Amino acid sequence: MPELTLTFAEGRHRSALHCGSDSLLAEAEAALAVKIVARDAWMDCKGAKAALARTEALFQVMEAARAQGMLIRADDFRRALHAAAEDRLEPWRDLVTQPVVLALRRMSVVPRTFSQKRYLQSVLRSDITFGVGPAGTGKTYLAMAAAVNALTQGHVRRIILTRPAVEAGEALGFLPGDLREKILPYLVPLYDALHDMLGKDETARLIERNVIEVAPLAYMRGRTLSEAFVVLDEAQNATTEQMMMFLTRLGEKSRMVVTGDPTQVDLPRSCLSGLHEALAALERVQGVEICRFDESDVVRHSLVERIVRAYARHRRSQG
User: Fold this and answer.
1) What are 39-44's contacts with CB under 8 Å, separation 24+?
2) DSSP label at 1?
């Protein structure tokens, strides 16, 4: 039986490729139809010639990712493994050989899937980018990373974060506290991302100086947003009027990112989602890019991907 030996600089490097997990190696053996023995800085593989070629390609891609500082998680390994087993590893090669890295003060942000990479490239080059797809695909987090990067690099003077406050019907005046406190529950995911990238103290300082501004979508009316990086999150809950109002706020030297999941609209049934209309109307407008994610791009717990797939199958069956 043909054999292949893969060698690495150190044993810990080899182990990092499969998260130090023997069970993941067992999954690789089953998916690729090979026998793998891993010790120290080497990996001995036995199997058919084509199976060995797929195995070598898989671990070459994993090693390239590790060498660039990417943390390989079990879910990452499984996705790459399934791609290798189906001879669909080329997007993964592109992902690791042509990386897009945002070096922020506290961390570096690297796209984890091919769709994330394409999305981040679009955000960095286009005036308006739409990121649409299911939960857990990194749409909001990458938008926030791009916003922080633009601010720290001096490309914009401020960051503006907004989100429809659907549950309160935009009538926030009856809630206690100032405007920031009223809208805070709706913007927690954005704050969480800022705390990751800047730290709580720096985030609070920039908000206090109005360098980072948070506001409900309804409060964007009548403004011109210049020299700003503007993120509209949960855009599926914007009405058609709100979406048009928001997009026409774009000013000089500004950039907008609109994120949303068209399958999770919380608006009344009689109210059309502004995200649906915008995606249809702006598909071919120069300067606007639309990046779509699907369940295969989910980068949270592997169960999230299975949940999204199950819901997609159910909805298709229901027409």
Assistant:
1) 39/11, 40/11, 40/14, 41/7, 41/8, 41/9, 41/10, 41/11, 41/13, 41/14, 42/5, 42/6, 42/7, 42/8, 42/14, 43/5, 43/6, 43/7, 43/8, 43/14, 44/3, 44/4, 44/5
2) -
Q: Tally the domains of the chain.
A: 2
Instruction: Render pLDDT for 6-36 as a digit per residue (tens, 0 to 9).
Output: 999 999 999 999 989 999 999 999 999 999 9
CA distances 240 to 133, 264, 276, 278, Å, are 19, 16, 9, 8
Task: Match 């990373």 to its residue by tokens.
Answer: 145
Q: Taking Cα atoms as reference points, which of 39, 45, 63 lies closest to residue 4?
A: 45
User: In angstroms, what CA-CA distances link 152 with 103, 106, 158, 203, 213?
Assistant: 10, 12, 10, 13, 16
Does residue 85 sit in the same domain as residue 110? no
Considering 74, 97, 120, which residue would you say is the last residue of a domain? 97
Domain boundary among 97, 126, 157: 97
* pLDDT tens column, 36-68: 999 999 999 999 999 999 999 999 999 998 887
User: pTM score > 0.85 for this model?
Assistant: no
147 and 78 housed in the same domain? no
Residue corresponding to tokens 């633009």: 150
> Is there a single domain that holds both residue 160 and residue 80?
no
DSSP 8-state secondary structure symbol assigned to residue 175: S
Close Cβ partners of 314 (under 8 Å, ≥ 6 residues apart): none
Asked if residue 143 and residue 190 are part of one domain, the reply reads yes
What is the distance between the alpha carbons of residues 287 and 128, in angstroms, rounded to a whole number? 6
Q: Are residues 69 and 204 in the same domain?
A: no
Same domain, 262 and 157: yes
Give the range of the structural domain holding residue 42, as residue numbers without chain letter. Answer: 3-97
Token representation of residue 279: 């995606």
Show the beta-strand stretches assigned E in 143-194. 158-163
